[in-house]
Write a structure and sequence with these properties.
- The protein is an all-beta fold.
- It has one helix and 27 strands.
- Strands 9-10-11-18-13-14 form a six-stranded antiparallel sheet, with no helix packed on it.
- Strand 6 and strand 7 form a beta hairpin.
- It is globular and about 55 Å long.
């Protein structure tokens, strides 16, 4: 959407979102993450470790087909271009006692997504996520502290002690305390008392994702290209994805994002290469490749062209 510098309602999302992620496309401003469990105006930023803040005139409310914005430049600056990604959970959520720590869970089991809010303890804990299926990715942020990193678990990491940081381009890190060296189950995820996702008395938010056939998929692949090479890499999802995020786990790289609603930047060799790229860990403006270093989104997955 394009900002107007005043107030406006963004419609045609297709549902009432419970999680809205906004990024200014043509300028260096932070990512803005809002969810219904924490409430409107409550902002966290994927490219920083800042604690939650109340940001007046940002996302002011959600409605049946989108969300409403105030006058804040970083979400509605006049003439600025923005991307938003939206997920449906189940409103403000309800109490979940599946784990040793009671959590507030807003969940959509049909789409495999839940928002989980909880308070950390000073001892090992399990936290209910409500999915009814084993999550394939969990993104957690300490809301109370700006010195604590975003922590991500993904099922393609090499062990239960590994994690990634959403605000960083770093490779996977090792810490047995973060997930208490325990894989998530269909009801809970775990942390030791000293883990990054469980400091005593601190408030946390977690976004949990499960695979849903034909709808969303968390997977992995091994690159097959040499520097300057021309190999392609097809990644099967079983459906036409609208959002593709890729993060290297064996080395440093950004959390690179492509989606169907941001424009093709070029057509080369009869391929519609989607090369409008943002990164969830960076405040950089959207960049577009000048050749075919990008992805071709297909009916059953995506193809990575040449030496992207």
């Amino acid at each position: 959407y394009t900002g107007n510098g005043s107030t406006q309602t963004i419609s045609s999302v297709g549902f009432q979102p419970d999680f809205t992620w906004i990024k200014h496309r043509d300028g260096e401003t932070a990512h803005m993450l809002f969810d219904y469990v924490r409430g409107a105006l409550k902002r966290i930023q994927s490219n920083t470790n800042n604690s939650e803040t109340t940001a007046n005139n940002t996302l002011t409310s959600w409605n049946s087909d989108g969300f409403a914005l105030g006058t804040e430049n970083d979400t509605n600056g006049s003439g600025r271009l923005f991307a938003s990604w939206n997920w449906k959970a189940n409103g403000s959520g309800s109490s979940n006692t599946d784990g040793s720590t009671t959590s507030t869970v807003s969940v959509n089991t049909t789409s495999g997504f839940s928002i989980v809010k909880y308070t950390g303890t000073s001892s090992a804990a399990t936290i209910g996520h409500g999915l009814g299926a084993v999550p394939k990715m969990i993104i957690v942020k300490n809301l109370s502290s700006g010195s604590r990193k975003w922590v991500v678990w993904h099922h393609n990491l090499t062990s239960a002690s590994k994690y990634l940081s959403l605000s960083s381009n770093a490779t996977e890190a090792n810490d047995t305390a973060t997930w208490n060296n325990t894989l998530p189950t269909s009801t809970v995820f775990s942390s030791a008392g000293s883990g990054e996702v469980n400091q005593g008395g601190q408030n946390f938010i977690a976004y949990c994702f499960a695979d849903v056939q034909g709808y969303q998929k968390m997977g992995g692949y091994t690159g097959n290209n040499t520097a300057g090479g021309s190999n392609t890499q097809f990644v099967y999802t079983g459906f036409r994805p609208k959002l593709v995020m890729v993060k290297e786990i064996s080395g440093t790289s950004n959390w690179v994002i492509y989606d169907l609603n941001r424009n093709y930047s070029l057509t080369e060799n009869n391929y519609n290469i989607r090369a409008a790229r943002l990164a969830w860990n960076s405040d950089n403006a959207e960049s577009s490749f000048t050749d075919d270093h990008g992805i071709d989104i297909l009916s059953n997955g995506f193809n990575i062209r040449d030496n992207s």
